[in-house]
Amino acid sequence: MAKFILMSKLNRYRYCGSAVLIVAIAGILSSLANAGDRPKFPPANFANAPRANVALGQLLFYDKILSGNRNIACATCHHPKFGTSDGVSLALGEGATGLGTARRVDPEAVPEQRVGRNAPALFNLGAAEFTSLFHDGRLERDAGGAGGLRTPLAAEMAEKFNNVLSAQAMFPVLSGDEMAGQYSENDVSKAVRKGLLAQTGGAWDIIALRVDEIPEYRRAFDGAIGKRPVKFTDIANMIADFIAFEWRADQSPFDRYLAGGTLSVDAAKGLDLFYGKAGCATCHAGRFQTDHGFHAIAMPQIGPGKSARFEGHNRDIGRMRVTGDPSDIYRFRTPSLRNITATAPYGHDGAYATLEAVLRHHLDPVNALYSYDRTQAVLPALSGAQDWAILEDANEMARIAQANELAPIGLEDHEIKALLTFLQALTDDVSLVGRMGVPNTVPSGLPVSD
Fold first, then answer.
1. Can you give the residue range of the structural domain that contains 147?
2. How many domains does the chain have?
3. Does residue 97 form part of some domain?
4. pLDDT digits over 298-310, tens only?
5. Which of 15, 60, 203, 365 could form a disulfide with 298 if both were Cys (CB 3.0 to 4.6 A apart)?
6. CA 78 to CA 321: how far, in whole Å?
7. Residue at 436 is within a domain
8. DSSP per-residue codes, 87-117
């Protein structure tokens, strides 16, 4: 049995380079140690923040005061109604109103483009195992970096953060498409346009001062940090404490199984496939079903891609944009599969609307790329959007296909069904709802989207 599992997994990587093959072998051998037995993982490492900090972070997470135009909160794109994402392939941020799949363009301030990547789920990001964030891993824990981090902002991120999760909150508020607003329409976007970020009077300072001037927030921060002025770093740390508490997902049927319980017959069949013939655990490894690595799997590219404003293309080269290494082209971070049944659409750009569709993509990525059904994309209407530019570019499609790391694998329909049943067993119902929920009001007095 172990020999069969080893050969079936290695077969998936027969077209890969030696470096990828070595990584694959290491993952395979690790999983084989538990073949025919329960998977065994080290305990998860979650920090426990003071409850007052968590409560403060909850209010900040749902408060639109953090956005340039005071019209978008963190929760706008990461809402519990949509599995801590937003239910669409690519979000409409600044220039739109509404929540999730009901979000629509504001005719008085039409967005320039969609947000280029799918809003990732937030489950378990407070665990110490998550040392890099974003689809391309551009924010990473790095002892040699400024403030213990490696980020595109370099020295601007030198202030002390509790962890990479808190540092992550520093980025969306600077994005014109997400929270800052476009160009010169408010004080935050003006500062961003001038490159004023961490300086006195810069974008983060402007937002922090807004919060500091609200009496209810000021009183809460007095208890958390003392009487000194609030910095955006403090805001980010509180938000991270809330996310870590609210969306810790470690009480699923799979967790109970790891502790000695049982799974349903179909889920157990799916588990055997996941850790055996299907080879899923080669990349979706560990307690949270991610190796925290980056892989190219010929995912269809839709939407504006990831480019600077002056670049006239819709490409998204993934990890290569961070490392500059050509071998990283089209590689994206392996997502955790916790609560995966609630976090559609799937892929770095949300190309697939259903879990079954993205699972089948993994069975034959190149063929799935070329036969992609555009109706899978969940895209709110945006006039002039070039959503299919890459799908209609034969050269770019060929490059995406050539970078693919996964060889085809054959599974029967009943095996697909079993895998889907196992993935359902990764659902923690408490974390889906959230431990604190959506507040009725926030200290700024701005409306709360629920």
1. 51-85+120-248
2. 2
3. no
4. 999 999 999 876 6
5. 365
6. 24
7. no
8. SSSS---TTEESSGGG-EE-TTS--SS--SS
